[in-house]
Design brief:
The protein has about 325 residues and is an alpha/beta fold. Helix 2 crosses helix 6 (about 165-180). It is built from 11 helices and 8 strands.
Length: about 325
């Protein structure tokens, strides 16, 4: 499996350096750190979980996230400080199988409320193995990746890109918050209802916007959009599998070029947190356009929206344009 470079902000590096070996008391001096406020302290594993915690918790929660903005979350490694913060939190909200280091830390943590988003909806297998066209070496690498993400036929963890499934998770998170912090249960319930309306509106916009299109096939950098495609009657063809920075085989590239002609594909989508090199090479060779389809694994200055809903709306516009929506 490829070892991907992780871009960590200078602030995080400085903080980790200042922490020193074996020194965990530094986090207690951070008034916003988990476990050190008079609010309900929640540690979220990455942006989609952070967004849910903030929307549902409102003024009653203090949310910290383990994944820095701009950091590719799939192979996150935790610092000693982050592990310590998790242990001091009132609750941790994560998506099991997406980030192995987080899964391991949570399993060893004694935090009272552990909320696994994957248990709040149904995960599916979107055929991550079917794109192995690169011979024995590529297959071995892919098998290692599949094993690391939860088995030979790994379930697709990218449920947050389906507004309906994300709403199911939100409801479960709200119920967990209500149980863990009953003094503010009414507010959590009201906030969850408001979020459900936002997500229902998003679902309606996607249904209507993608109902009639010239093509139903779209190309992506990695297989993050299986749930979204299934929800709205589309077909996702990923250059890579679940690993956004693996290299596709020449056979896979040729296959995609042929499919682009057959299915009227106009655009190759890439994403903001990983290299666009492969997508742009494919597009150039096949005479296609490129655009961003954001898997929403983190919000950065390059994101086409300030939050989950904003970026999902931008994704819809990009899909409507690429697919020739009527």
């Amino acid at each position: 499996m490829n070892v991907r470079r992780r871009r960590i902000s200078g602030i995080a590096v400085t903080a980790a350096t200042a922490l020193g070996l074996g020194t965990l008391s530094a986090c207690s001096s951070d008034s916003s750190a988990a476990g050190n406020t008079d609010k309900f302290d929640v540690v979220a594993s990455f942006y989609p979980m952070e967004y849910l915690a903030e929307q549902i918790g409102g003024d009653h929660v203090n949310v910290t996230t383990l994944t820095e903005p701009g950091q590719e979350p799939h192979d996150l490694e935790l610092s000693a400080k982050q592990t310590a913060q998790m242990g001091e939190a009132d609750a941790v909200l994560y998506l099991k199988s997406l980030q192995p280091a987080v899964d391991e830390a949570i399993a060893q943590s004694d935090v009272k409320t552990k909320i696994d988003a994957a248990s709040l909806t149904k995960l599916e297998d979107h055929g991550n193995v079917e794109h192995d066209h690169g011979g024995e070496e590529h297959a071995d690498e892919h098998a290692e990746e599949e094993h690391s993400e939860g088995g030979e036929h790994a379930l697709d963890p990218h449920v947050w890109l389906d507004p309906v499934k994300y709403a199911e998770i939100a409801q479960g998170v709200a119920e967990s918050f209500e149980k863990a912090d009953p003094d503010h249960a009414d507010d959590y319930r009201k906030n969850a209802e408001a979020l459900a309306k936002k997500l229902a509106g998003l679902d309606t916009a996607y249904k209507e916007g993608l109902a009639k299109t010239d093509s139903k096939v779209f190309f992506t950098n990695h297989a993050a959009f299986g749930y979204l495609a299934e929800r709205y009657g589309l077909t996702q063809e990923a250059i890579n599998g679940l690993d956004p920075e693996s290299e596709p085989s020449p056979a896979r590239i040729k296959e995609l070029q042929e499919e682009a002609k057959a299915d009227g594909v106009t655009t190759v989508f890439y994403e903001t947190l990983v290299s666009d090199k492969t997508a742009k090479t494919l597009a150039k060779d096949a005479g296609l356009k490129t655009d961003v389809l954001d898997p929403l694994e983190g919000i950065t200055d390059k994101s086409k929206g300030e939050d989950y809903v904003g970026v999902m709306e931008a994704n819809l516009k990009a899909l409507e344009t690429a697919l020739g929506a009527k």
